[in-house]
Specification:
It is a single chain. The protein is of the alpha/beta class. It contains ten helices and ten strands.
Length: 265
């Protein structure tokens, strides 16, 4: 399959490598663990990853891949485009998540892709009012809350109901603090349509062993140091659950956690 076909299938935007879109790939390798890419990836592949940093691009080059597709609208950090250009790599970005991207490619490959896309607010574009991205660094208590503050300011400028904005801001802040305390970094995606607000926090961290237990009020894995700063009372996820209209949590121990928070307008 040519990379330009993958770009079309995933409705991906081109970051770098226009002249190499005709390159043929034999395999699709999906992973956020670069050690696995180097250990198990096969040459002439293309990498699907949510790891939006320079190492993902370097790892793809070392494994003799043809390019990288960054999922969930992510884009690599500064320096990656130049490296890709110098090493004939294609860099793409798709709004799909890892699962949907892999399934879509496989169904196309087998000629079984359905004509109608599955209903999902993140797949609809005709009524999108706003789509923004913010970043959180783990263990950076000095800047903790800045992403949520910027998110709240953005919503206030739109003129949404103040009570709704408050619920979204509180949920985003609780999610941000969980990242600061328990993860290495995270990306926050804010989507506003005419019917819904969606906040997705995708972190790289240690993950949650028992999501149901973590949703119980008072349960905490925070350290004494964190509690001394006023954080980690065990109300983070329960408070998010209380303020959202729909909350979905996916977590993998040793990899990270994805929070999908939805608020009806």
């Amino acid at each position: 399959m040519e990379i330009k076909n993958i770009k079309e299938i995933l409705d991906a935007s081109l970051i770098e490598g226009k002249e190499n879109l005709g390159a043929v790939v034999k395999h699709i390798y999906a992973s956020d663990l670069m050690s696995d890419v180097l250990a198990f990836g096969k040459s002439d592949s293309i990498l699907l990853t949510g790891l939006a940093n320079h190492q993902a691009v370097i790892s793809a080059h070392m494994a003799e891949f043809k390019g990288v597709v960054f999922i969930r609208g992510k884009k690599p950090r500064e320096g990656s485009e130049k490296f890709a250009r110098e090493n004939n790599l294609v860099l793409l970005s798709t709004n799909l998540d890892m699962y949907d991207a892999c399934i879509k490619i496989e169904l196309i490959r087998k000629g079984k892709y359905p004509q109608q896309k599955p209903p999902s607010i993140t797949k609809k574009t005709e009524d999108i009012l706003l789509n923004q991205q913010f970043y959180i660094e783990g263990n950076d208590f000095a800047k903790a809350g800045m992403a949520s503050t910027n998110l709240k300011s953005t919503l206030k400028k739109i003129g949404l109901d103040p009570k709704l904005t408050r619920r979204v801001a509180i949920s985003a802040y609780e999610g941000e603090m969980n990242v600061v305390m328990h993860a290495r970094r995270a990306t926050v995606n804010l989507l506003v349509t005419t019917k819904i607000i969606e906040v997705n926090i995708d972190d790289e961290g240690k993950g949650i062993p028992d999501v149901e237990l973590a949703l119980q009020e008072g349960f905490t894995t925070s350290t004494e140091e964190m509690r001394a700063m006023g954080f980690g009372s065990g109300m983070g996820l329960p408070n998010i659950n209380k303020n959202t209209d729909e909350l979905n949590i996916e977590s993998e121990v040793g990899s990270g956690t994805k929070l999908q928070m939805k608020f009806n307008i």
